[in-house]
Design brief:
With about 270 residues, the chain is of the alpha/beta class. It has a single domain, classed as 3-Layer(aba) Sandwich (Rossmann fold), CATH 3.40.50.150. It contains nine helices and nine strands.
């Protein structure tokens, strides 16, 4: 990948802000999942790819003062942001570790729960991350994933050719770098292949009306990867700028219907 970090969306300031906002946007879905996992007082929980915030605060409240939450993040800047968030929120039971989710260096069977949200869809070799999560939970512990399946990334109506072209560019870039934008549908199978039992699945689809912050998520993603698309000559600057301008006008139109990608929550027991 020409020396680039494999994370698809990069680590720009805009991306950090988007991730912090996303933590609030997906909080209710994550709380629902954590209810199913039975996370309570005294639990030890690992969040893989926590980014600048992730679910650290939600998990901290659940495990209480006798529990422990460890966030693992590979990007040093995001680690510092997450540590600042932890300090500002007074989350005394949370630590953030700078490390690779494929080889965390953490002890085997040390956690009751290992979870990740929207990590696998942005990285190559996602099965290695799932294998490490399975290694880290105790017998009877839980592994839980919340992933996207980008069946066009978002769904729109009426159709817009600019959207289709942008989806094509994102998918071509992903394929070149071993990133599976359709990983969501495969997560339950991955869990079973890793030996997880009692695997359960919950599919999600959200509508983003005018004014909703996630209405522009496709545009946000294209902005994040614009330079990467140009670097590998999948499009030129003039085409990308024209496509992005057309997409913005389209999203600003209150008559445009915007839906999320298909989201898949899947969890199982070790």
């Amino acid at each position: 990948m020409s020396g680039r970090d494999p994370y698809f969306l990069g680590y720009s300031e805009d991306e950090q802000v988007r991730l912090e906002r996303q933590a609030s946007e997906f909080a209710a879905d994550s709380e629902w999942l954590f209810d199913r996992l039975g996370i309570g007082d005294g639990a030890r929980v690992l969040e893989v790819g926590c980014g600048p915030r992730g679910c650290l605060d939600l998990l901290s409240r659940r495990v209480g003062p006798t529990g422990r939450v460890i966030g693992v993040e590979r990007n040093a800047e995001e680690v510092e942001r997450a540590r600042r968030f932890v300090a500002e929120q007074g989350l005394a039971n949370v630590d953030v570790v700078h490390g690779d989710a494929r080889d965390t260096g953490l002890p085997k069977a040390a956690f009751d729960v290992a979870t990740a949200r929207l990590v696998l869809v942005n990285v190559p070799q996602p099965e290695q991350i799932v294998a490490e999560m399975v290694r880290l939970v105790r017998p009877g512990g839980m592994v839980a994933l919340h992933e996207a399946d980008c069946v066009g990334h978002q769904m729109f109506d009426p159709p817009l050719p600019a959207c289709e072209r942008l989806f094509e560019l994102l998918n071509r870039y992903s394929e070149r770098h071993g990133i599976d934008r359709f990983i969501g549908r495969k997560v339950p199978r991955l869990l079973r292949q890793m030996g997880m039992r009692e695997v359960q699945v919950r599919p999600l689809l959200h509508a983003y009306p005018p004014g909703h912050e996630r209405r522009s998520v496709l545009l946000d993603f294209v902005r994040n990867v614009r330079e990467r698309l140009l670097d590998v000559h999948l499009a030129d600057a003039a085409e990308l700028d024209a496509l992005m301008a057309a997409l913005k006008r389209y999203l600003d139109d209150s008559e445009t219907e915007v839906y999320s990608a298909v989201l898949v929550q899947a969890w199982g027991r070790a």
